[in-house]
């Protein structure tokens, strides 16, 4: 009944308030009340909703959406990659929801990895690896805060912390980088059912290291962040479209997916959002 009344009021307001009057009302609140209209607009389409898994939509993704795509009907266990696993919260939630899956968690930051290993030690379906994933095998520097060695903001781009988070009290460490393709070849993994990437601006490089799997339709669903860190890495949403031509791209909202459709520059919004890429032939 509550939802019905809400929808009825919405329809009534749309009927009685013209576009011109609506614009005037919005302008009034901007001018007089100093309302953050842009922030409201962003949050209405799944942007800047990072505060909780429920608000960001990650809870919906894990509990509802993935259950429609992960296939437990055969003897093969679904394969999940958590790239940029930090201390393991995401991997642990996935393990709890999908105990029959195989989860591979990657975290290059040594101090963070120790916590990841400890936090997941009792979960038999999670394997952890102390290296990062990128476009080629290499050694890179990773930067984190001097007073927060396990920060989820740790990045291979120093400017993420110095320019975006306004901190110069940083620690620099060398970390090993592998590729998804090499890892899968070395571990006899033919298919990735769900690939989650949270690497503070390095997401595109991670995907480039899986291009053969992507082109052969061997990765079903991909989740990656797109935000202000892509300004630092100089990667546009268009670059992801070009790389993921076999996929349909969506923005994740609290309890829905918003179809981004064909590429449109209007979606080049460098603010926190999760993009979900679903392979066309699923």
Please give a structural write-up.
- This is FkbM family methyltransferase.
- GO terms for molecular function: methyltransferase activity.
- With 282 residues, the protein is of the alpha/beta class.
- Helix content is 38%, strand content 23%.
- The protein has 13 helices and 11 strands.
- The protein is globular.
Short description:
The protein has helices spanning 2-16, 19-31, 37-44, 53-56, 58-69, 89-97, 110-119, 158-164, 180-186, 203-208, 211-215, 229-233, 237-243; strands spanning 79-83, 102-106, 126-129, 132-133, 138-145, 170-178, 192-197, 219-226, 247-253, 256-259, 273-279. The protein is of the alpha/beta class and 282 residues long.
Descriptive key words:
alpha/beta; eight-stranded mixed beta sheet; three-stranded mixed beta sheet; 13 helices; 38% helix; 23% strand; globular
Main sheet attributes: strand count, strand direction, barrel closure? 8 strands, mixed
Helix content: 25-40%
Give the distance, in angstroms, between the N- and C-terminal Cα atoms. 36 Å
| Shape, per Cα inertia axes | globular
Question: What are the segments in which pLDDT stays under 50 over at least 5 consecutive residues?
Answer: none
* Assembly state of the chains shown: single chain
Q: What's the helix count?
A: 13
State mean pLDDT (0 to 100 scale).
90
Give the total of beta strands: 11
What structural category do the secondary elements indicate? alpha/beta
> How do the strands of the widest beta sheet line up side by side?
3-2-1-7-8-11-9-10
Taken in chain order, the helices and strands follow as HHHHHEHEHEEEHEHEHHEHHEEE
Percent range for β-strand residues: 15-25%
Report Rg.
Answer: 21 Å
GO molecular function: methyltransferase activity
Pfam families: Methyltransf_21
Protein name: FkbM family methyltransferase
Keywords: Methyltransferase, Transferase
